[in-house]
Every structure is written in C-alpha cells, then in structure tokens.
Task: inverse folding
C-alpha cells in the first residue's frame, strides 16, 4: 500500500492524540518525558513500517501490528519494563523487512525476556534449529519442515536437563572440583575402564559380527536376538547376576581370588560389568557394516589368491571400519555411562557415575553437580571426537558409475 | 587343459546336472544360455566357491576339486567390476601379487606391463569409484590377469556396459586372448558376443550343457530347437528330433536332450 501525504498526516495526528490522551489520564502511566520518548519511538516505528510495508500485501500489515501488540502486552503491560520495550520495538520495526532476522529476534525475545532464567540454554538451541529450518526451506515441503522443527524442539526439551546442567556451574567451580584427587581418579577410572571394555568387546565382537554377517545356520535368528539381551536386562539384574557368579562368596569368584585375581572390587570387575552392557551396541552395528560389504568383493579377493583371513584383513575389515567405529563409539558411550551394574558388582575402584551417586548421598546436589558436569563434558567431548573421527575413515562404499543393479 | 567332468550340484534355485567340458590350453570358450540356466553357478563352482556334489575338475590332469579358491589360480571377472573401493587402480591390479607375496620389483614390472597392455595409464590417478563401467571392467581384467591364471573366467563381463564400451571391450578381449594365449571361459547370454569371441561354444539350459562345439558345427547341426533358436537360426530349417519337442522353448530348464560333445575327444 502506498500512503499519501494526507494519510501520513492523519496517522501522526492520531498517534499524538493517543499519547496526549495517555498524559491526560487521571493517573498517567508514564512521566511526561517518557511519554514523549514513547511518542517518538512510535513515530519511528510508523516510519519504518511505512517504508518496509509499502510494497507488501495487506496481510503483512496485520502481521506487523500483531507483532507490535504482542511486544506491547508482553514487555510493557506484563513486565512493565518501558526502556526494554522501546529498545525491542525499535529493533522489531527495523528487522521486520528481513524474515530471517525477524525469526532470530523472536527467539531472542522468547529466550531473554520470557524464559530469562534459562536465556542461554534456550536461545542457542532454538537459534540453531531455526537456522537449520531456514537453510532447508527451499528444498523441503512445509510438512517435512514442520516434522523437523517440531521434532527438534521436542528433542531439545528432552535434552534440556543436560543443556541446563552444563550451564549451571562456573568454570572456577568445575576446576576446583577437578583438582580434587578422588574426582580425577574416578574420571580416569571411568575413561580407562570403558576404553578397555570397548577393546575387549571389539576383540571378540568383531569376529562374531563378521561370522553372523556371512554365515547362515539354523538358529541364527536366536543368536542375533541373544546378542541384544544385555540391552533389555535391567542394570540391577545384571549386577546381581554377576555377583552370583563372580562375587566374593561364589565358587568361581572365590577360586579366582585364591589365584590373586579378585574380580569384584577391582578394575577387572568394572570392565566385566561394562563389557556385559556394552557388547550389543558394537556387535549389532558391526554386523550391519559387514553386511554392507558386497560378497563379490570377497570372492574376487579369494580368486586372486588371498586366504579367507587375508581377505578379512585386507578387504572386509577396512570396508567395514567406518561402521565398526560407530559401533565402538556407541559401546564406549554405553560403557562409560554404566552405573547400576557397577555399583552393585564392582563399586570399589570408584568410577565417575558411582562417585556422582555417593557424593549426592553424602552432601547433596550441590557437591555432586560439578562432578556430573565434568563427566558430561568429558563424555560429550570424546563422543564428538569419535563421531568426527569416523568421517575421516576413507572407506565410504559407493557403487561405481556405470554399474547396474543385478 | 581344463577338464570339467560330470559336475553336479544344487545351490538354492540353481542346479548343475552332469556338466562336462574340456577346455584346451589357449582356447576361448563361450558358455551361452538364458538367465537362470546355471552358467554362473558353473563358473563359481569352477572358481571354487561352491563344492560340487558330484564330479571332478582337473587342471592339467591334476584334480583341483577339493582345493579352496585361493589355491586354484583361476581368474574371475564379474559382471560388475567388483573393484576394491578403498584401493587405488594400481592397488587393485597388484592385489593378487601382494596376496601371494610376489617380490616388489617383479610385481611392479607385471603391473606396469598390464597397465600398458590395457591402456590404463590415464585412469591410474583416479579414485576407483569414479571409473566408468568400461574402465572399471578393464581394471578388473588387469587385476585378474596379474596373477597369470591358468584359466580366466568371465561372468557376463560386458552385459553391464553401454553399447560402445561393450564393443570396445569385446575387441580388447579378443586382442588379449590372441596376445597372451589365455585359456578363457566366457559366460554370456548374447549370441553376438559368442559369435565375435568364441572359438568354441557350449549352450546350457536347465543346469546342463545341451550342445558344445565350434560355432560352425552348432550352426550346421543344432541339437535341438532350443539351441537353434538361441543361435538365431531359422527354426523351420531345423530337424526336430523325437524327445526334443518344442516344449523346450516354452519351458526352459526341462530340456531332456543328452549332452553331446561334437568336438570329440581332444
């Protein structure tokens, strides 16, 4: 819409009338100076709107007014922060021309005004989600964008406790916690034991996965289901089962102890518990990775004179390495996060999750929180590193050009 | 000399039934047959991937039936080149030599010679995944030849290629065969390929070899309507022999013909 000089004059007069009216109320909501500032702010908003909305369809004018009114209600009426309102409204009017900036502005207002106590931990994820949606807006349908946006926001809500936790403690507190010897020892124990457990699982899990991917035998489906059993067994049940077999009073545990190989209450015990819970993740993922290696590559290798073992080392293992690394990452993550089984079966070399628990029981949330944050940060750091490391593996299987599906 | 004697096996839907072939040194045999007739199973049995239930495979009078694929020294080229995607072109070609621990200098000489012979110098620096079908198949052939196999098995090597690449590679195969005196068994369902390449033909149906011999012999005296039709002959000119009714044509796999070896002994 194009405004004529006459219409502009009328609008300015109407604005002035509103502000004069506000000033003449028996109990004016603003001082005269503030009222004047607001009047000029509104003049600016009107000017900016007239400029940006000049060539837009009529319904955008409605949208603009709705946005203004929401800000007005939210900041001025609800929160009563006049200077903030002036700032936001000026920003709003200036940004309205650019939808992408307007979106970020809306998220900013939502996080820093409405959800002020959680400003950072809401603003950053929401801004990331919004920019993702903005980036894919041309290549996806509105339905897919809705699924993506809704799903990501819901997922963010699920992860919110962790995001919030990570922003709770100052760096100083974290450092003070980190230099406590028992904390460092527990973190070290966690990293060491879960790495050992992943290696142990890999040592027998990779050959098993390879065999399962290559051989068919009666009962194979049962074996595949059995591999998953540790996922469904509650952690406490696993702990009790290990105690019954290997605990101090048991036959096997006693025998091993007499050989100076104490299981329960040693690093070996922790690793055994972690191997138990982590194995399915590595085996299942590795199996899928081996299944993706075309059988004819192995046949070609054999016909060229490589033995089955050489074929495994030179062809199958390298081509499956990316999937195996993904599986190892998952197994490692599962091992380091294990608590229930370890606390029952092998609580004495204290791992970090166990320490979080005992500190919580001893001194409450304030003492255990920094340890939890440290564990969270270290785990995430290693996890992200492994995820990136996996993309460095050069062996993406691609179908050579010119090939047809047979 | 490769002899396949009374080979029989069953693998899923595919079966071989008393297959016998005699491939002399330096001969180019084409195994012709419709899809699902057991050609590929026969190749893979000769290569050693399926143990046959009956029969023997002899290489120069030595029985290799019980040997594993890597001990047979039989080269195999698939329809899809099946190059190792994580290795370079050179890495693919020298794979067999490395697996056999051939000394570095000798391996390099062999690979360089094959690269030269197959004109692969231009594709050497390219990642394997970016090769065209024809280029990939050339590399696969070089890879199979690097270990000097006693027998080269080609499993429909041309059927995944476009027309021009097929003609080029066909000429290349004929040239290689002449230059290197290769003993070759080439499986295909295209009679054009068979006519262009094969010294000798074996026509397969339903898991057994219906007729084998030179192309001229088969054209002159096709054993049954199936063979005649598969060779593109005029059916009306063919004499129908009693048990071999026209049903062969309608129901592939039921041909009751006995295997005959027109080529005779030796």
Result:
């Amino acid at each position: 819409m194009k405004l004529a000089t006459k219409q502009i004059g009328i609008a300015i007069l109407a604005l002035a009338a509103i502000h004069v009216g506000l000033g003449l109320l028996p109990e004016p909501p603003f001082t005269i100076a503030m009222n004047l500032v607001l009047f000029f702010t509104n003049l600016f908003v009107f000017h900016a709107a007239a400029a940006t909305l000049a060539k837009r369809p009529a319904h955008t004018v409605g949208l603009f007014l709705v946005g203004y009114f929401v800000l007005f209600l939210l900041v001025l009426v609800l929160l009563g922060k006049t200077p903030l309102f002036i700032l936001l409204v000026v920003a709003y009017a200036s940004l309205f021309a650019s939808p992408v900036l307007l979106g970020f502005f809306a998220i900013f207002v939502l996080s820093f005004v409405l959800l002020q106590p959680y400003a950072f931990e809401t603003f950053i994820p929401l801004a990331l989600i919004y920019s993702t949606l903005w980036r894919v807006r041309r290549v996806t349908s509105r339905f897919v964008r809705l699924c993506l946006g809704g799903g990501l926001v819901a997922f963010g809500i699920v992860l919110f406790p962790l995001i919030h936790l990570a922003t709770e403690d100052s760096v100083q507190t974290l450092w003070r916690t980190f230099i406590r010897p028992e904390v460092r020892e527990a973190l070290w124990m966690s990293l060491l034991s879960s790495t050992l457990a992943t290696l142990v699982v890999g040592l027998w899990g990779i050959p098993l996965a390879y065999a399962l991917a290559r051989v068919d035998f009666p009962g194979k489906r049962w074996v595949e289901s059995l591999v998953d059993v540790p996922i469904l067994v509650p952690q406490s049940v696993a702990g009790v089962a290990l105690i019954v077999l290997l605990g101090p009073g048991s036959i096997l545990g006693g025998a091993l102890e007499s050989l100076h190989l104490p299981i329960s209450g040693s690093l070996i015990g922790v690793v055994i518990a972690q191997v138990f819970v982590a194995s399915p993740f590595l085996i299942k993922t590795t199996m899928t990775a081996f299944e993706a290696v075309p059988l004819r590559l192995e046949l070609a290798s054999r016909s060229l004179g490589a033995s089955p073992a050489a074929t495994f080392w030179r062809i199958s293992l390298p081509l499956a390495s990316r999937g195996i690394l993904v599986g190892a990452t998952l197994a490692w993550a599962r091992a380091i996060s294990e608590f229930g089984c370890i606390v029952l079966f092998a609580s004495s070399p204290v791992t970090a999750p166990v320490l979080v628990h005992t500190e919580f029981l001893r001194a409450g949330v304030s003492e255990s929180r920094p340890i939890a944050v440290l564990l969270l940060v270290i785990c995430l750091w290693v996890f992200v590193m492994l995820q990136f490391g996996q993309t460095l593996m050069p062996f993406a299987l691609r179908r050579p050009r010119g090939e047809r599906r047979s | 000399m490769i002899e396949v004697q009374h080979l029989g096996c069953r693998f899923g839907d595919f079966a071989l039934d008393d297959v016998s072939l005699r491939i002399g040194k330096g001969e180019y045999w084409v195994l012709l047959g419709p899809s699902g007739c057991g050609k590929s199973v026969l190749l893979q049995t000769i290569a050693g991937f399926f143990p046959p239930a009956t029969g023997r495979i002899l290489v120069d009078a030595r029985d290799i039936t019980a040997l594993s694929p890597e001990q047979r020294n039989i080269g195999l080229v698939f329809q899809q080149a099946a190059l190792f995607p994580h290795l370079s072109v050179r890495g693919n070609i020298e794979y067999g030599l490395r697996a056999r621990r051939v000394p570095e200098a000798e391996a390099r000489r062999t690979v360089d010679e094959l690269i030269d012979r197959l004109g692969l110098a231009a594709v050497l620096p390219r990642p394997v995944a970016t090769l065209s079908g024809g280029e990939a198949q050339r590399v696969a052939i070089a890879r199979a030849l690097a270990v000097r196999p006693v027998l080269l098995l080609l499993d429909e090597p041309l059927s995944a290629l476009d027309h021009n690449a097929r003609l080029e590679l066909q000429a290349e195969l004929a040239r290689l065969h002449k230059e290197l005196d290769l003993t070759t068994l080439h499986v295909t369902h295209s009679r054009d390929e068979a006519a262009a390449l094969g010294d000798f033909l074996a026509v397969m149906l339903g898991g057994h070899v219906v007729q084998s011999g030179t192309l001229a012999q088969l054209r002159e005296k096709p054993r049954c309507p199936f063979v005649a039709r598969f060779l593109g002959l005029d059916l009306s000119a063919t004499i129908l022999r009693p048990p071999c009714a026209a049903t062969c044509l309608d129901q592939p796999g039921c041909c009751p013909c006995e295997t005959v070896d027109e080529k005779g002994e030796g």
In short: Chain A touches chain B at residues 294, 296-297, 299-308, 310, 314-315, 318-319, 394-404, 406 (CB under 8 Å). Confidence is low (pLDDT under 50) at residues 396-406 of chain A.
